[in-house]
Amino acid sequence: MTNALVGQRTGVLERVPGLPALVARAGAEAQRRYLEFFAAQIRNRNTREAYLRAVRDFLGWVETDAGITDLLDIEPLHVAAWIELKTRTYEAQSVKQKLSALRHLFDWLVTGHVLSTNPASFVRGPKFSYTQGKTPILTPTEARQLLRSIPTETLVGLRDRALIGLMVYTFARISAALTMNVKDVYRKQETLWVRLHEKGGKRHEMPCQHNLKDWLQKYIEAAGIAEDTNEPLFRSVDRKTKQLGSNRLDRQRAWAMVKRRALQAGLETTGICNHTFRGTGITVYLENPEAKLEHAQQMAAHSDPKTTRLYDRRSDQVSLDEVERIGI
Predict the structure, then answer these.
(1) Cα–Cα distance for residue pair 232/42, rounded to 1 Å
(2) How many C-beta atoms lie closer than 10 Å to residue 56's C-beta?
């Protein structure tokens, strides 16, 4: 690499906004490896964003609170102190994800000869063991109440019903639903199917339940987007015209929509989120006597049945029924 090219690259890196001060001061190679880690090593957008928040938080804390001014001076003790601090405000699983972000970044810096050792390698995270998920779910009655309460005289209402219905009937994650294009709703075997791009690059296809089939068709027809095959399926609302625009709906706006629709339906909104509908759909499916866990696993695109069991909340109702037997 010529000196001119090195100087050009260094100049570009120095102008990149948002670099943590510790990384910026560590030189061009540290900056390049830092940027490469997030740009090239992490393909999942949600993971990338979570890791970026964790790394920025740690590097900011270690400089302001621990007084570290050089990346090379970070030690396991600093990582352990930060992890201990995070356990006071975050769930164990979230803290382990933050620790994982540091381990992977520092490993990348070590292999790039920016650091000699990984200060997060031998720091232990908090233990956790979940046999059941914590995301609130809806009962079948509540789910029907929510879906039926959405006014369908407007295009936005048709969109919202189709999106929520998609998550309920296909167990789709919100990210998979929102990354769908119009062409991901298609006809196959004389019925309507959807194509979802789930975590880990999984391409997952599901036939539509009859309600979902009807809701998707009515939304696409009303929106006039059937020919826009490579355009987003679920789109944000233009603030001026109050009509669907051309931009893809994002997770935060989808969450705000879910909270608003639940409130309008008279449901308790505490804790309800986009992921609520995945757990709702799986639990309602498994309540059917003929349902099988392995089929739920396949429908949810889970690699491990243990993950599917986390969404099975049938025991909540069993516990409530037993408690009511205490006839005091």
Answers:
(1) 23
(2) 15
Tell me the H-state helices in 37-90: 45-64, 76-86
Decide: 278 and 167 in contact? Cβ < 8 Å: yes
Rounded distance, CA 320 to CA 325, Å? 9
Sign of the Cα pseudo-torsion (18, 22, 23, 27, in order): positive
To which H or E segment does residue 142 belong? helix 140-149
At the top level of CATH, which class does the domain 140-323 belong to?
mainly alpha
> Which candidate, 70, 156, 58, places its Cα nearest to that of 114?
70
Model pLDDT for residues 195-247, shown as the tens digit of each residue: 988 766 678 888 888 999 999 999 999 999 999 999 999 999 887 777 788 89
- Within 10 angstroms of residue 43's Cβ, the number of other Cβ atoms is 9
Task: Write phi, then psi, for 113 (nearest 5 degrees).
Answer: 65, 25
Interior CA angle at 216 toward 215 and 219, to 5°?
85
In the chain, domain spans:
3-111, 140-323
